[in-house]
Amino acid sequence: MSRDFPVGFMANPSDFNKEAVERYKTQDFEGAEALYREALKIDPTYFPSQLNLGILMFKTGRYDDAIKECTKAVSLRSDNPSAHFHLGNAYYAKMWWEEALVEYERVFTLDPSHVDVHFALGGIYLNRGYKEKAVECWKKYLESAPPESMKAKLATEYVQGTTANQVHIGKYIAE
User: Domain spanning 1-108 has what CATH number?
Assistant: First the structure.
């Protein structure tokens, strides 16, 4: 792998992960993926790169790969709410509601203050026909969400009953 690395770059998983995160931020997803994989070659149990690889797979629309990589992250750190949340997001993208629901409920168990899981759960409930439960989740989400976010605006519309059509909110789950 021939790449230009910062001065002082060492061949350890942390350095590869840090550089991959920088590539991800500039939307160099191919470069980021290669670096996450290099980190995992050095240490297959390096959780940050494993989870970040799963997130990258989700971001690039490779949901089956996201499920695979996030499942590996969960197996490395089953106590990490972020790993369960991102696995839930990948299931959500595939419309595997039951699997997503299980992962989001694990997030609640591990971190009851996790804000974004309320939004995601609202989406599941809405998609399954439980509008009242969806509204309850979105009300809870709005208690802590940044009011200027698109997710907050959508949740507010649903809670107030002012939405003219049922926007598929799934695309906002991971934002």
Answer: 1.25.40.10
* pTM > 0.90: no
Domain ranges of the chain: 1-108, 115-175
Question: In which band, very low, low, confident or very high, does the pLDDT at 3 lie, cut at 50, 70 and 90?
Answer: low
Tell me the residue type at 45: T
The torsion region of residue 134 among left (phi > 0), alpha (psi -120 to 50) and beta comes to alpha
Amino acid at 105: E
